[in-house]
Amino acid sequence: MESLLNIDRLTKTYGSLKACNNITFDLYPGQVLGIIGESGSGKSTLLNCIGDSLEIDAGEVTYTNSNNETLNIKQIPESKHRKLTKTEWGFVQQNPHDGLRMNVTAGANIAERLLNVGIRHYGNIREEAKYWLEQVEIDTNRIDDFPHTFSGGMQQRLQLARVLVTKPRLIFMDEPTGGLDVSVQARLLDLLRSLVRNLNLSVILVTHDIGVVRLLAHRLLVMKKGQIVESGLTDRVLDDPQHSYTQQLVSATLIP
User: What angle do CA 52, 178, 44 make, to 5 degrees?
Assistant: First the structure.
């Protein structure tokens, strides 16, 4: 199977600190790749370098789009990259305030991405917004409510609806369950797992929560001090960790 996304020797430095050091991996269609590590390990920096909100110092990021074109993300024109982030890519932020416009309604948040791809018919946009509210288990009667009136879990689900409306192929998630209580987390994870399966989404999921990657991720990267110290199938890495750092992470989650 041809990879959807290829990261080759990606490096990002801040002075003498290598936040990402020679990172290489492939992501395949329909695959969820989890990236775990302690705070400061470089996992969020890596996500932002791939998503292109951060410049990289070395290496390449290549993506195969829906037309089967292989794009070097660091070399394509800004207009083409902007279109990519509004159509085939989606971003789910840890803090919904960073991923939503809090001063417009739930329906308008979803509609914005449709407007970005040239859809203008008000009735069609509203129906599409209702459809995606249903898909993320938000009552369609809330379509004209503002996000600040929603709970934290609902705001995260609204972020998902906003992202999914353009049917992206690749989604970047940065700690999507952070800050949510356990019961809300469980509901969101069940929804995410269902959406990934039904929509054949490829996802890069950054988290410090091993329970989240165990439930969602097919493959796993473990990062420490800007480097990948272990990688492989999620169950294998977590059930039989080889690197001492991975062993420490797994052991920490088992302590009552």
Answer: 25
Nearest to 64 by CA among 25, 113, 26: 26
Closest CA to 249 of 98, 241, 13, 178: 241
- Residues 6+ away with beta carbon under 8 Å from 133: 106, 107, 110, 139, 140, 142, 143, 158, 161
Please, which pLDDT band fits residue 128 given cuts at 50, 70 and 90?
Answer: very high
Structural tokens at position 68: 């089967």
Crossing angle between the packed helical segments 106-116 and 152-164, to the nearest 10 degrees: 20
Q: SS3 for 185?
A: helix
The pTM (predicted TM-score) of the whole model is: 0.92
If you search the block for the tokens 């791809």, which residue do you land on?
117
Just give the CATH number of 1-88+171-256: 3.40.50.300
3-class secondary-structure state, position 224: strand
The residue extents of the domains of the chain are: 1-88+171-256, 99-167
The 10s digit of each residue's pLDDT in 171-183 is 999 988 887 888 8
> For residue 78, what are the contacts with CB-CB under 8 A and spacing of at least 6?
none
CB count, 10 Å around CB of 31?
20
How far, in Å, CA of 246 to CA of 182, rounded? 24
